[in-house]
Amino acid sequence: MATERRITILNESEIEGLFGPPLLNLNDQRYLFALNDAELTESKRIRERNQKCMFVLLLGYFKLKPVTLIHCDRVLFFLYSNRQSEDIGGNVSFADRYPLLLIGEGSLSELNRRSPVLHSMDQFRTNLVVSDAEPFAEDSWKRIKIGEVELEVAGPCSRCSMTTVDLETDQLRPSREPLRTLSQFRSDQNGV
Question: Cα(84)–Cα(96) distance, rounded to whole angstroms?
Answer without folding.
Answer: 10
